[in-house]
Recover the amino acids of this structure.
């Protein structure tokens, strides 16, 4: 692992909090590559975070999420907002980096000093969001972003981790997916705050709208209790049709989250999840080291010879973490 000198880290953090995009890029690289200094990065910038509003753009592959996001950036910039974008892509089997490079679709914003776009690989994460995404969000928050958009990789029904990171979740679908409700049901249906039917100039857009509307009606009591019923917005990303309505829906949900206090509930839950993930990751690292040791081999042999049962063996391992009896 690469370690960054403390004085260099201090310098980068100073540049970051003064809006330097290159500093943001270098610090995101540090956390994405798992440098030893990544933990120090978050420690230094954390007091400067908590101001950005995070919007997740999720949904099945091929729904035009990147094109839609490109237009949302335009609308946010027209209002003078500083924008950060994290586009989570599949991982290259050769380099370990982002495979699709969704930021290519947003290339026109590359010269805007108030827009930062970064493609990040999933690095084995099955929930549609990279492990390093949370840290990258904090870096862009400290950079001064008003809005941070996270475009997930597009893997379908299991892509629900975005709720752990985003304040508002926009689910994008398109007509003609076959069984439209199948494409958005279960976890995805439950986490969406806004539904978007993109490419709505296609045949079948109205049917898709009705299917989502019917699905939402089954949960009508829950929405009444929450005080927010997810709107269904029809858009055509290439022509900007409906994109203004989507942007307005995002801002309305932001206002609702702030006034109702639900943003605090969501962020408390997010911190709990994040702390749990950090602890699990660190324990897993220690376990991997233990599994490679001779003492673990001896323990395995005792289990194989029926001298000890697997549960008792697990208890012995837990004792090494002062977690005996858990």
């Amino acid at each position: 692992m690469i370690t960054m000198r403390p004085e260099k880290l201090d310098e980068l953090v100073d540049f970051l909090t003064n809006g330097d995009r290159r500093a943001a890029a270098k610090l995101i690289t540090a956390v994405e590559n798992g440098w030893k200094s990544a933990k120090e990065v978050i420690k230094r910038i954390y007091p400067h975070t908590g101001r950005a509003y995070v919007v997740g753009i999720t949904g099945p592959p091929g729904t035009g999420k990147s094109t839609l996001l490109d237009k949302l950036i335009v609308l946010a910039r027209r209002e003078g907002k500083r924008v950060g974008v994290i586009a989570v892509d599949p991982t290259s089997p050769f380099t370990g980096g982002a495979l699709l490079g969704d930021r290519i679709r947003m290339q026109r914003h590359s010269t805007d000093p108030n827009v930062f776009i970064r493609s990040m690989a999933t690095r084995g994460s099955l929930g549609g969001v990279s492990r390093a995404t949370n840290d990258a969000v904090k870096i862009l928050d400290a950079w001064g972003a008003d809005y941070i958009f996270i475009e997930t990789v597009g893997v379908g029904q299991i892509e629900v981790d975005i709720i752990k990171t985003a304040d508002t979740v926009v689910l994008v679908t398109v007509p003609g997916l076959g069984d439209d409700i199948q494409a958005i049901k279960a976890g995805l249906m439950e986490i969406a705050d806004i539904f978007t039917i993109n490419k709505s100039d296609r045949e079948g857009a109205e049917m898709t709208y009705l299917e989502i509307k019917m699905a939402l009606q089954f949960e009508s009591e829950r929405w009444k209790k929450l005080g927010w019923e997810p709107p269904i917005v029809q858009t055509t990303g290439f022509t900007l049709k409906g994109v203004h309505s989507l942007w307005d829906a995002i801002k309305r949900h932001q206002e609702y989250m702030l006034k109702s206090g639900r943003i605090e509930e969501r962020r408390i839950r997010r911190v709990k999840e994040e702390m749990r993930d950090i602890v699990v990751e660190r324990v897993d690292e220690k376990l991997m080291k233990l599994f490679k040791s001779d003492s673990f081999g001896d323990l395995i042999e005792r289990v194989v010879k029926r001298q000890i049962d697997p549960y008792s063996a697990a208890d012995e391992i837990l004792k090494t973490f002062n977690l005996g009896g858990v």
